[in-house]
Amino acid sequence: MLFGAVGATLALLAISHATTLLWLTLLWVAVQVLLNVIQAPLTAVMADRVAPRRFGMVSAFVGLGSNLGATHGFGSEAVPGQR
């Protein structure tokens, strides 16, 4: 999970320096892959630590957190007019 978090952070930082559409696309794909490296263990641990009746709610929060984090990270690094 740490590798995914650090890698996604670095890839998001690199996106702000992308000069072509190709680099932007490749880095965004890398971000998504690395965020999935974080997501997989969270989903696996959920079954061990959460009551079965709460699986849906916990899954929703885990998924929402990773999506909001990625969107916020991308949005905060790609501020228009900083070049």
Structure description:
- With 83 residues, this protein is mostly helical.
- The chain is built from three helices and no strands.
- Helix 2 packs antiparallel against helix 3.
- The N and C termini lie far apart (33 Å).
Task: List its traits.
83 residues; single chain; elongated; mainly alpha
Provide mean pLDDT, rounded.
84
Q: What's the shape? A: elongated
Query: Which bin fits the share of residues in helices?
Result: over 70%
Distance between the termini: 33 Å
The whole-angstrom Rg is 15 Å
Stretches with pLDDT under 50, minimum 5 residues: none
Total count of strands: 0
* Beta strand %: under 5%
The DSSP helix count reads: 3
What is the topology?
Blueprint: H1 2-15, H2 21-49, H3 55-77
Helix pairs in contact: 1-2, 2-3
Describe the structure in brief:
The protein is mostly helical. It is built from 3 helices and no strands.
